[in-house]
Structure formats: structure tokens, C-alpha cells
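worker-3 :: picked DUF748 domain-containing protein
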Amino acid sequence: MFILYSLIGFFGVPYYITAILPSTLFENTGVFFKTDHTTFNPYTFSFRSENISLQLTKNNNRQLLFIKTLSGKLSPFHLLRNDIVCNDLTIIEPSANLIRNKDKSYNFSPLFQSDRQKSYSEMMNFSDLPFYFSLNNIRVKDGSVTFIDQPAEKSHSIKDIQLALPSFSNLAFQADNYIRPHFSATVNGSPVELSGEAGIGDSGSARTSTDLVCNLKAIDLPLYLSYLPFTLPFSITEGKADGKIGLKFDPKGEKGQKLAVRFTLNISKANFLAHNSTFDLAIPRAQLEGTVNPVSQNIHLNTVKLTKPVISSFGRSFVKNISSLLSTYSDKKQSVPGEKSEYTTVIDSLTLKDGTLKQFTPEKDKIISEWTMLQLEAHHFSTRKKNEKNAGKEKAGTFTLTGSRKKSSTSFAWKGKISQPTYFLGTLTANHLDLNGLARFLDLSPLHSMAGTASLKGELSLDLAESEKSLKNAVFYHLDDATVTIRNFRLSPSNKNKKKNRSTELLADKLILAGFSRNKKNINFGKVRFEKGTLTFRKGQPRLFFPFLLQENTRSEVSSSKAKVFLSQTSLLKFFFRTSP
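worker-3 :: C-alpha cells ->
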């Protein structure tokens, strides 16, 4: 028995690895595996393999992975339970050649394919493996990685990789000693170093965790942003980032939360361009702090601060441009290999300070309107819908948006709640509005000249998803229970050839619309009250009020300072003419 055990250990195990394992691996993955020499000691359970290579085709000179030496020591008791536990593992001079193909798949994809095909972007969940493993005290020496990105026509190199990882596992195991985590390498010619701690716990504790922290300095954002594991609705054309990125691995964390990437970034001189070219965003300074869980596909942003951003919107309206962008982003399906997954995003605090919004014509040659001093505070925003799991545990989202129009006293404030990822409801207050600008916002197109300064207060609700579906409608919101006050109101024919003393016009110190409402189907003027109004009518002049007041789906109630009368649309016109001087 002793001799048989020794023969199996010293000769049988190496034979299996060098002669049988390659064919088994090829049948399951189509990958060629080869090792020149392997030794195994059945009494110490230590092993060593040399010149290990993985290739996608047998005659391909470009190896997917090559390891000069792999050595370690296994735990025999765990092998009896079909668990793989390694007390220490040393990898010397590994080199990997990774390729991102034109279809956005990767050359290592066959390693992770199975009978039930997964998308190329889906990350492996180690807790779902049919066996348990615990790799401890992992050392990588003098490693290198070459990455060729065919779609982006770029190549990247990582050289001089030195890695020390205390633990990587999906089962509870406590080693006697752990090394200090460390990572250093030269990435595209720039040295990068990470250091951290291993939170192992007391002897016998089931919890083991690893923390690595990397300091970033003047990182070129356009070079790396396209490699994020999720799709962004915009591209970045320039920008630098300083800060820290931390990697935390806790094998006993909640499902989907074992691996977390934490970051604190200070971004400068960044410029973002929407994929549909409807707007671009220039940000002189920004701060981001949060966590990405790549397995559960969650992004948690604790803090987002944007300072003096400039938003340039082209054609249509800014709100509809944003709606179109978000709709395209959220409705995207993974039907093509290599398609990136949609992540759930949670933002605890979003602050925009001293922003500017410029609305351009579709030709991008003229500014239609410009809003300055934009201030935004948003809290507890989430792209997870309420009917999804755990959504009820999240706090209700809130927002406050204020701003003013350039070179005028026009200002607004909108404050309310976010009940769904794209649904905003709150009280809108606007002051010193140009009457014609207000008419455009309300989708009123009077055939006559109007003048006056308006203020508005009401409940405004906006569904970005619904507004994208209603792109043909000018009204993409609901305004309810509003009070509109117009000072120095004047309504007169637009014919400039009319002499002033022969014109038909309505003048009022104040025009008040109480209970005004507007949506994409109806408009209700509510109760209309004139203060110190004068109506001048000349026989033969155009019917001034007919086109304006008798629009489809319009209701009104009118009163004057002398008498209060409630009239239908038809009698409203007669009321004006009957009481004219």
C-alpha cells in the first residue's frame, strides 16, 4: 500500500497533469494546455510545474498564457472533500496576451463558455462553481500582460507585475500566516503601486478579506474609460483624474458583494459628448466617491460634485435630449456577444454648482437661450425601479434645481421628489418671465402680439421616459394647480401697419390665471381675472381674441374688478366685446 501510494503520488499525478489533463481541457474548452515538467510530493502535498502554456490553436505561436514556474502546497484534508485549498502559491514570470476582437468578444472567452452560454460581458461568479477553493499567500513575480484592443485600434502593456495577495477563495479557511497585500507594475510606461492590508481575523475565524489601494496621478480618462464593464450614454474626449482606487475582496460577504472596487476621484478639464450628438458637457472640476460591485452589477456613488459645468444642447429641447439619451441607454438589450451589461446606479448625493445651460439651434450656429447660475441638489437617486427587489428599503429621492437667465432677472426654482428613476414631481416657482417665452413653454401660439412680465407657481411633474415617447408633442410635462400672474399685460394685433390710435388691444396692469393646468392633451386657464384692464375695439379690425381663446381643449372662467361672470368659451369672446369702451 505504501509503495502504491508513493507510485501514484510521485508518478501518477504528474502523468495525469502532463498527459491526460490537456485532452480533457481541450474537449471542454477547445484550449490547448501544455506543461513541460511537473512534480508532486504525496507526503508534503507540494507541487511544481514548469513552462505552462495555454493556446487557442495548436499551431498558434501567440500563447494566451505562459507561466515559467508554478509551485505551491495543497491541504490534503480538504482534497478528501473535493475542495482545493492551497496554503501558498507562487507564480513566476507569467505572461498573458489578451485580445479584444472586432465583435467586442475576447480571445479568452472559450475558457468560460459552457453548455449554457453566458454573455461575454457577464462576470464569473466564483460562488456558483461546483467546487470550493481557497488560494492563500499568492505571489506573482515578474509578470506581464499585453492587451490589443482591435475596435479601438489601441494596444496596452503591463510589465514588471509584482503581486502579493493574502487570500482568494469561496470557502471559509484560516491559514496559519498571511502575507501583506501588494501590487506594483508599469502600465503603459507609468509606474503604478498598490498596497493594503489583509483583514484575516482571529485564528479560526471564517472571515478573510483583502484590501488594495492604488494612488492615481494625472490619469488620461479617454484612454481607460472605454474599458469600464458597463455602457455609458456618452464618450469622453478629454480629461484628467487624480485620486485613489481600492480593491476589496471579502469571501464571506453577501452574494454579489464579495468583490468591490472603491474609488475617490478628482477630475479636471473633462469633456463629455453624447453618442447621439444632442449635447456635450464640459466640466472644469468634479469629485466622485463611490463603489462598484462588478459581480452584482451595482454602482453606488456616495458623492458626486460638479463645479461650473457648461452644458451645450442642440436642437429640440434640453429635456427631450436628455430623455432620448436615457431612453436609448436604458432600453439597450444584450443581443450581441461582447455587449456590456446594464448596471444599477444609486447616488446618495449629487451637487451641481454654478452651472450653465446653452440651448443651440439644430445647426449649432446660434444660441436660443442661455441659463446661468444653475444649482442642483439631488439625494437618494436610484435607477432601480420600486417594484424590484430591495427597492423598498431605499430612501425616497429628493431634488432642488434653481437657475437664472443670462442678462435678465428671470429665475426659477423647482423642488420635489423622485418617485421613479425618470419621474420628477415638485413645486415650480418662476419669476420675471418673458410672456412670449412662457407661451412657448405652454405651447400657446397666439396670432397676435403679446407683451408682459409673468410669474408662475404650480406643481410640475416630468417623466423623462414618457417625454421620449412623446417627441412629436411640444408638451411633455404636467403642470397642475398653477397660478400665473402677468404684469403690464398687452395683447394687440401683430399687423405693424396699423396706426397705434386705430389698433384693437387689451391692456391690464395685472392678469391672473388661478387654477391653470397644462398637459399634452388639455389646457385649462382656470379662473381668469383682470385688474385695471382696458379693452379698445375698432370696428372692422381683426377678431383679436378669437384665435387665442377658442383653441381646442380650452376652458376658462373670467372675472373683472367691477363684475364677476363665469362664461363658456363662446360667450367669453362676446363678454370682451360687450364690455369694451
